[in-house]
Amino acid sequence: MTNDPASRTLSINKDTQLCISLAARPGNFGTRFHNFLYAELGLDYIYKAMTTRDLAAAIGGVRALGIRGCAVSMPFKEACIPFLDELTPSASAIGSVNTIVNEDGWLRAYNTDYLAVQQLISEQRLSPKTTFALRGSGGMARAVTAAFRDAGFKHGLIVARNAAAGQALAHEYGYPWQAELTGYPELLINVTPIGMAGGPEAGEMAFEIGAVQQARTIFDVVALPAETPLIRSGRAAGKQVISGEAVSVRQALEQFVLYTGVRPSAEQVSRAAAFARR
Fold first, then answer.
1. What does pTM read for this prediction?
2. What is the pLDDT of residues 217-245, one digit of tens each?
3. In the annotation, is 48 catalytic?
4. First to last CA, the chain
5. Residue 154 within a domain
6. Residues 105, 124: one domain?
7. Is 9 domain-assigned?
8. 72 to each of 1, 164, 174, 225, 243, how far by Cα in Å?
9. Which of 77, 129, 154, 239 is an active site residue?
């Protein structure tokens, strides 16, 4: 057996804690990130990415089987709420869940997407005076919108094809809504599956190239692939870009801490993220 966490064989036993993720199109980033850190820190955990066509049964399985933690991705972030026991402030304030922790059959919900976006706003030195357009109206859009609102961004616009959902999100957070973008805001934020690998719009961009060229910053929360068409266009135009992978690393770290009670060092997180990208 090697001491390299990236290749160490895990000894699974009756006491091994299982954590899972539920997504419409599961990826390997979270699986590799979490399992690397479990091995690195000698924790008796294992992580597996999954999907489901029966959300109620899947959440019931988390409870009944004693699954320690469950990451929740699109399109389950709001739909899972009726099956949970408690929403912590990070989830209840947004009405969206991305993390479930099982405490002896009690399912407690969090939203680490919100925390991750808050961190990125600070790290990337985004000014609250910046004008922005956010495309999307689902659970992740709620988390991102809330993070920008709470960071003091007053000049925003919600862009969503779904008029009812888009108007509801805009009204809740105090921004206007449009079905399609007009004008050229300084910051473009994609919080839809547009550009996601394996999806019907994998090769498309959430914003037209003219808007990209006029913007200062491009932010795409889609993590798979790491370089979406929107991010590639932003880089080619010399813009500041914030990728979905950056969100994934930060939110996954906070999930890891909730599941295990252990916070890895920055260097360990960096190596886990690099391993997850391979």
1. 0.84
2. 999 999 888 899 999 999 999 999 999 99
3. no
4. 22
5. yes
6. no
7. no
8. 33, 24, 27, 18, 19
9. 77
